[in-house]
Design brief:
6-stranded parallel beta sheet, binds iron/sulfur/oxygen hybrid cluster, 544 residues, Substrate Binding Domain Of Dnak, Chain:A, Domain 2, globular, 18 helices, binds iron/sulfur cluster, Rossmann fold, alpha/beta
């Protein structure tokens, strides 16, 4: 079977995975993901037509569409039967909603799919994937928007499960996804739509920020242990704080400790989780080291979102999934109709396991989200005025397994001592544990949180602009050296472009899905550039 996917930074040869995904995605999984997106476009054409006729779309339908997009993000779903079921549910929901529309309502072919066998599905998938769009620039922009929407939906899902919704954003996602079938939209219209996607990216990151902070409090400066305790443990990874809240509640008093991994580290910064004595510390590093680290953890592991990688046999029986994450052969924890999840299988299994093997000792400090940094504003502003802090370097985004990513650790090490790194996302693992010291009382690496907390970095930049009375956010002494891996980074990038941030450097490579002409548009209008080598880039940024 053929496949084609180029949605993440690790795509084969920097061009596209066509035999098997570097991530472990098989051609069959790729086919059903393509088909899921295609069927979802059909469903979105129907919901958009319903809205146009003044009819409302149920929240459960909006949520269903959000999860469909989240499901196809890199490293989320490796379960073929589950994907097949999801495609069938999408087609069934489309058929049901279509009955509410007048018979003569014009709809695309994907709004009325007829899928009998899995073979029919595979055959159809061949004609509806990325390469179905022949014009390279149109394909590039359509995929840029699709990946932005996938990232946006990941963040929207986290807000939704905490009871925060934005119907206008749901309507935009659905209208836009359906519009990607419209051959009447050219480069200019699609470029505008990509920037509008960035605008909704800002809205949704702000909504998620409100959901997280109103539910769990404002992140505060926190010291997090990196070592291990003597009890058996459960390791939780991914980005879903509600899952963590339920797990901590259920594990408390059981004799089992809970450790965070990768993007769950910033959970330690929230006041709401500090009361749990079972909340131990952070174990390990970014997602791509999970094979080694999960094997050594010895207890159950819960993946709440991407990035999961196809597991080794040594820990597969201890790997549980939930939310949009599925791995064939691993137990999946479903929410009940009230959103409650029963994590007792993990707690019971943990009690039979050895405590985690120690990976490292020590502590790290984080929690520099917007409110905490605003509380330190006087210190930061006087450090800037005295010249003690000369520059901020935004080094946010994703980490990944390619060797070339050592660039980011080297870049951090070689930065002049009067620079401060602002970070968010799993990219931080390249420098958070380096001994970079402080400037006065201000650590040289300020971790705002998860990748969605890039929103905090924007708030901080806007605050500095206000304090210094600058006309533009681009007048601040801030440079952007961002690393990307998957589609959440795409929505963060589009959000920054929407806010008018210029001269973002993106690495370790520019996205394969950007055609030369689209790159040209981004270079001309936003000054976007890639990276070269550390010394050259330090000079270019005026940091050497
Ligand atoms: Fe990293 Fe994975 Fe948060 Fe991504 S864990 S790579 S941008 O999913 O979402 O930063
Ligand atoms: Fe390849 Fe990335 Fe797609 Fe996986 S998600 S198939 S690694 S481009």
């Amino acid at each position: 079977m053929k496949m084609f996917c180029y949605q993440c930074q690790e795509t084969a040869q920097g061009k596209g995975c066509s035999v098997k995904g570097v991530c472990g995605k098989t051609p069959e999984i790729a086919a059903l993901q393509d088909l899921l997106i295609y069927a979802t476009k059909g469903l979105c054409a129907i919901t958009t037509a319903l809205r146009a006729q003044g009819k409302s779309v149920e929240q459960s339908c909006n949520f269903f569409i959000t999860i469909n997009l989240f499901t196809t993000i890199t490293n989320a779903n490796f379960d073929l039967p589950k994907l097949e079921q999801r495609v069938r549910e999408t087609v069934a929901l489309a058929a049901k909603l279509k009955r509410e529309l007048p018979k003569d309502c014009a709809l695309p072919a994907c709004a009325s799919l007829n899928l009998d066998s899995r073979e029919t599905m595979f055959a159809l998938a061949e004609s509806c994937g990325v390469l179905a769009t022949k014009n390279e620039d149109i394909r590039s922009l359509r995929e840029l928007i699709t990946y932005g929407l996938k990232g946006l939906c990941a963040y929207m899902k986290h807000a939704n499960v905490l009871g925060f919704y934005d119907e206008a954003s749901d309507a935009f996602v659905q209208k836009t996804l359906a519009a990607l079938l419209d051959d009447g939209l050219g480069v200019a219209e699609l470029t505008a739509l990509a920037l509008e996607t960035g605008q909704y990216g800002v809205t949704i990151m702000a909504l998620l920020d409100r959901a997280n902070t109103e539910t769990f409090g404002n992140p505060e400066i926190t010291t997090v242990d990196l070592g291990v305790r003597n009890n058996p443990g459960i390791l939780i990874s991914g980005h879903d704080l509600k899952d963590l809240a339920m797990l901590l509640e259920q594990a408390e008093g059981s004799g089992v400790d809970v450790y965070t991994h990768s993007e769950m580290l910033p959970a330690h910064y929230y006041p709401a989780f500090k009361k749990y004595r079972c909340f131990a510390g952070n174990y390990g590093n970014a997602w791509w080291l999970q094979k080694e680290e999960f094997a050594k953890f010895q207890g159950p592991i819960l993946m709440t979102t991407n990035c999961v990688v196809p597991p080794l046999e040594s820990y597969k029986s201890r790997l549980f999934t939930t939310g949009p994450v599925y791995v064939e052969g691993c137990e999946h924890i479903e929410a009940d109709e009230n959103g409650h999840k029963d994590f007792s299988p993990l707690i019971a299994l943990a009690k039979t396991c050895q405590p985690p093997q120690e990976l490292e000792k020590g502590q790290i400090v984080g929690g520099f989200a917007h409110e905490q940094v605003f509380a330190l504003a006087d210190t930061v502003v006087s450090a800037i005025k005295s010249g003690a802090i000369k520059r901020f370097v935004v080094m946010a985004g994703c980490d990944g397994r390619q060797k070339s990513r050592s660039y980011y650790a080297d870049f951090a090490r070689k930065l002049p001592s009067d620079t401060v790194i602002l970070t968010a996302g799993c990219a931080k693992y390249k420098y958070l544990k380096l001994p970079l010291g402080t400037i006065g009382d201000v650590p040289r690496v300020l971790d705002a949180g998860q990748c969605n907390d890039c929103y905090s970095l924007v708030r901080i930049a806007l605050k500095l602009q206000e304090v210094f009375g600058l006309a533009s956010v681009n007048d601040l002494p801030i440079v952007y050296n961002i690393s990307w891996y998957e589609q959440k980074a795409v929505i963060v990038l589009l959000a920054l472009l929407h806010l008018g941030v210029q001269k973002i450097h993106l690495g370790p490579t520019l996205p394969a899905f950007l055609s030369p002409n689209v790159v040209d548009v981004l270079v001309k209008n936003f000054g976007i550039a890639g990276i070269t080598d550390v010394d050259q880039d330090l000079k270019l940024f005026g940091l050497a």
